[in-house]
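_Per-residue structure_
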Amino acid sequence: MLQCGVGVSSKNFKKAVDRNRIKRLMREAYRLQKNFLQDLLKEKNLQLALFFIYTGKELPEYKMVNDKIELILQRVAKEINV
């Protein structure tokens, strides 16, 4: 089982619209890339909970968010395989 959460600081982004957009981008990037990690966890009969926190100061582009989520998920998968 794989669970995920996302968070954005209201200290860096005063407007809820901006925070919600970043969270939406993060959730979408995660949704599109989680399958290989889910399969790995099923294979090894493990459970995992992830929480992503965006700490940047400016609004990100989707490509940057997507690339970083992919990198994080690959690192997590690498740790599981060890």
